[in-house]
Amino acid sequence: MEQVFAICQENREKLKDFLTSLDKDTLFTVPEGFNNNIWWNIAHTVVTEQLLIYKLSGTPMQISDTLVAKYRKGTFPEENPTEDEFNEILELLTTLPKRTLEDYKNGVFSTYNAYQTSFGFELTSVEDAISFNNFHEGMHFGYILALKRAIQPNS
Question: Which domain holds residue 38?
């Protein structure tokens, strides 16, 4: 499982790079033909990891219900984040996977409520959820690259 966690951490570093290297206009633009933006995709990965691993394990999530309500599956960008929310997501991107690894090693996830993903995968254990989370984040990483290209065609 160490490698699975390392993949997540590396992906999160790359997502953090988007937040720190792209201007806010680029992060918050929803290009024609798309229904969300780079920012939403990044915040969504933070929320989804918590829902898949913590909530379905019956373990208290490490994020607010406000973030969940704004960035869970089925939501769309309605407003730009405040500076505080932006900084919170920036920090959570890298701190949460480390916390999840620590909690996993400490046996915090003792139960798991099976969940059928929209991709047709049934998650029956926290290990399934952790692995599927990497797939999910990789999909959103690709979507972010497509959004960036739509906004900045020559970059």
Answer: 2-151
